[in-house]
Specification:
Elements lengths: L15 H13 L4 H7 L4 H8 L1 H11 L4 E8 L2 E8 L6 E3 L1 E7 L6 E2 L7 E4 L7 E4 L4 E4 L11 E7 L4 E7 L3 E6 L7 E3 L6 E2 L5 E3 L2 E7 L9 E7 L4 E6 L8 E5 L2 E5 L5 E2 L5 E9 L4 E8 L3 H6 L4 E6 L4 E6 L7 E7 L4 E8 L11 E6 L6 H4 L3
Parallel strand pairs: 3-26
Antiparallel strand pairs: 1-2, 1-27, 2-4, 5-6, 6-7, 7-8, 9-10, 10-11, 11-12, 13-15, 14-15, 15-16, 16-17, 18-19, 19-21, 20-23, 21-22, 23-24, 24-25, 25-26
Length: 377
Amino acid sequence: MEKQHNQFPEKGLLTIESILVDLLISIFSRLPVKSIARYRCVSKKWAYILRHRDFTDLYFKISSTRPRLLLNFEVNGNRTFFSVPQDQSSCLLAADRHMSFPTEQVFYRVSASVCGLVVVCGVDRNHPWIYNPSTGQCIALPKTTSLAPLMHFSFGYDPINKLYMVLRKSKDFRVLTLGTGELSWRKIECSIPHWSAYDGEKCINGVVYYIAHCDPTRFQKPYKLVCFDIRFEKFKFLDVDSEIWGSILVNFEGKLGIIPDDTVFVSGETTKLVMWVLDDVQNEKWSKHIYQLPSLWNNLAGDDVLKVVGLTGTCEIVFSPYNIYQDPFYVIYYNVMKNTVRRAEIQLGVVPDNGLMVGTSVDHVENVKLMEVLGSS
């Protein structure tokens, strides 16, 4: 990095300037994310500190210890992001409102949060956008061309090289890597043509997992679990049963967990949950976990239909209403280790468009890195 006058002093030089910079960084790293945006406008010096990679990496590291639930739903015709603390034991949470985007298109998809960012695809499915709810910024990725009528996108993060990746799945497969200096799609090889389920992918330790369907032959089954290694851009395919289509994929203590389709939607009458865990990818070894819900579950869930939206880092399955009819909105946590259940009501501070789908993502991390950095080296 080039030296800049009166900014970050060289490491090892104990000066008044270096002490003040370290003190500012320590203070800034504990501020709410909205304050960071305001303080970038105070002075050129503060802007430089708050944009510097040392600070954004530190803020991300601290934010990772306090994950949040990221919600998105329509307010006055615009899809809007909100977030709330995830691991607090409080039964009443106040939501922070973030950015919005227009939803004039009938169909669009919002990905799960990956290290603080999400991908949004519109009805044409060939022009995805990357959104950072924490900074309120977004960037459009280059349009893609394909003869296929439908294209799906997967989003992941490589923790080794600290790079984000978007995988385009169509008749041919292409990837785009953010932060390498050029936003362009590169064609990659895939030995088994396939198309993926609409939803349910999961990125764990630099590998994107998703359920796919391929043309069956006498040698292979039609349904596959696809494991895409972001760093090496390699596919691995595992055979799975058809019942897994539409399942929810979760991160279970660093391993892939799959909650089958028949237990994705639950109600107060549900008595148990099932989760399959991929213990050994190379040898394709799975273990089956059955959880008997405690009696309190019926009282908390009642007659509402809830959807499994994820599994937190503290081993709590999160259930959320699929549509916003309830006031106030709420989520239910079930701890698979302790066999305990709790409900948290969320104060949104706005009136959502009634009856529309709500998207809920677990383990969202506040990321203050600016989007222009992702589009450069």
